[in-house]
Specification:
binds flavin-adenine dinucleotide; Flavin_mOase-like; 16% strand; 17 strands; 29% helix; FAD/NAD(P)-binding domain
């Protein structure tokens, strides 16, 4: 809890929390309100700095990961940019549009308070807006107070008419598996490290950590797969030891050129092209469910060649625990000796939100389905004057965040009106039902299978044409990309 004395140091219309890709996208679109941006880290870019290994690359082609009004300088280059290239690109973007002046670095938001009414939430919403309207995003008086802690114990308070929350779904808070007493990491004599801490090592430190060690990597998503390749590379030569990937749920892995395959043949194509059956890595669920939940991992070129050399091994295990010398798998009671256990077990993005959003609003973000209820992926109809960017996923998250930020800015500018609160809630419920039918992993809130429909609906709601190309031929034949959404402000 922040200190009792709450002398407000600055009052502004718009506050933005986080300066990753989503925060930067929101900042660009809302810059005309002279926003205040709080960023806990020391640079923009979020996960591209904090959750990236030396080998981390963009999984999407660069043309799919660019701002509509700022093409990559080498946008036809077919190679996938490294995380450092992405940080450079974002930095150039921020310089081009003079965005750095709004960002307060090393400034973590630690508390948010509602000052817009008596109790907050649904009741006030109906009262202030009347007739079940959501009400103006910028009502002309402070609605939220925000406490930050810039590099030290002293809190500072700010007040805003609208808050845009962009704290990210990944990074910052590691998800650590739970174990029964005396079967967790406390009894293990080796080292345990989450991938988030591994990201902090420089290349030599990372190689040193893994060289000649028996490494177990827990997980089989993108960060686990990249980690296995880095481990294999650190263990070349006679002294090298193989690493073992411990896999609970299999997901489809795809090579970099997968986009050229025709979708309904993808599964058989992948089974033919990659040695998935050889290593028992073919998932039980259809490819489309991983696509619909943004979960297929692009395999680095070296992944299967390293497995073929015996440098990466695989172990399927739904339950496991620590022993003093490694891991015990509870399904078949086998054991694995390990010196180092790397947890590529993901992040708890929700905690970052629940830590700062006060009740009753926090509970409005929880849904029995587990999906964060957001209209257009941005507004919770029951939370006044607050927007969220970066909490729905697609195959091109930058574009998804940018389009929703354009929508948000036009809404703040009163260029269009939201439907009534009840209608927005219905819309959200319908969307969640559709997602549930598409994939068992619907809780990831991924819109990849219908992102074009979403973009069309968003354009139409803003009063703009959803036909973004300049000819019928182009509409019929060329795929949609971020460049089609230029000139919308
Ligand atoms: C390893 C990895 C690879 C990925 N690859 C792809 C890809 O190929 N294609 C793709 O489309 N997407 C990819 N993604 C998804 C990626 O998360 C998004 O593309 C995007 O970068 C997310 O940006 P964000 O701003 O929403 O979140 P983040 O990047 O997490 O940024 C959030 C920011 O908020 C700050 N913050 C958090 N809490 C606070 C607080 N309380 N106060 C102040 N600041 C705070 C953090 O410091 C951080 O800078 C990848 C993600 C990871 C982790």
């Amino acid at each position: 809890m922040a200190s009792q004395s709450r002398a407000v140091v600055r009052s502004s219309k718009v506050g933005i929390i986080g300066a990753g890709v989503s925060g930067v996208a929101a900042l660009k679109q809302l810059a005309h309100y002279d926003p205040v941006v709080f960023e806990a880290g020391d640079c923009i870019g979020g996960v591209w700095k904090s959750c990236s290994y030396h080998s981390t690359k963009l999984q999407s082609p660069r043309k799919d990961y660019e701002f509509a009004d700022f093409p990559w300088p080498n946008r036809d280059d077919p190679t996938f940019p490294s995380h450092l290239d992405i940080l450079d690109y974002l930095t150039s973007y921020a310089h081009r549009f003079d965005l750095f002046k709004y960002v307060n670095f090393n400034t973590k938001v630690v508390e948010i308070r509602f000052v817009g009414g008596d109790g907050g939430g649904r009741h006030d919403l109906h009262q202030t807006g009347g007739d079940g309207e959501y009400g103006a995003l910028l009502p002309g008086r402070p609605v939220w107070e925000v406490a930050v802690r810039p590099n030290g114990p002293i809190f500072q308070w700010y007040e805003f008419e609208m808050l845009v929350v962009c704290t990210g779904k990944y990074g910052d808070v590691p998800k650590i598996p739970e174990f029964p007493q005396k079967r967790g990491p406390e009894i293990f004599k080796g080292k345990v490290m989450h991938s988030m801490d591994y990201c902090k090592l420089d290349k030599e430190e990372a190689t040193e950590l893994m060289r000649g060690k028996k490494v177990a990597i827990i997980g089989f998503k993108k960060s686990a797969i990249d980690l296995a390749v880095e481990c294999a590379q650190a263990n070349q030569g006679p002294e090298g030891k193989p690493c073992t990937m411990v896999i609970r749920t299999l997901h489809w892995t795809v090579p970099h050129y997968w986009r050229h395959a025709v979708s309904k043949f993808i599964e058989s194509y992948l089974l033919h092209k990659l040695p998935l059956q050889k290593y028992g890595l073919n998932p039980d669920h259809p490819f489309v469910e991983d696509y619909a939940s943004c979960q297929m991992a692009i395999t680095p070129n070296d992944f299967f060649p390293e497995a073929d050399k015996g440098n990466i091994l695989f172990k399927r295990a739904s339950k496991w625990c620590f022993t003093t010398t490694g891991l015990q798998f509870l399904d078949d009671n086998t054991r694995l000796d390990a010196d180092l256990v790397l947890l590529a077990t993901g992040y708890d993005g929700k905690k970052k939100l629940t830590d700062i959003i006060p009740e009753p609003f926090r509970s409005f973000l929880e849904y029995p389905s587990g999906v964060m209820p957001l209209y257009r992926g941005t507004i919770n109809p029951l939370i006044p004057n607050m927007a969220f960017v970066g909490y729905i996923e697609s195959v091109a998250n930058l574009h998804t965040a940018e389009l929703r930020s354009i929508w948000l800015a036009r809404l703040a500018d009163k260029k269009f009106k939201l439907p009534k609160v009840e209608k927005m809630c219905e819309h959200i419920s319908q969307e969640i039902e559709i997602m549930k039918k598409t994939t068992r992993f619907y809780q990831r809130h991924c819109i990849s299978t219908y992102s074009i429909n979403h973009s069309d609906e968003i354009c139409e709601e803003m009063g703009l044409s959803s036909w973004r190309k300049n000819s019928f031929l182009a509409e019929a034949l060329s795929p949609y990309g971020s460049q089609d959404y230029k000139h919308m402000e």
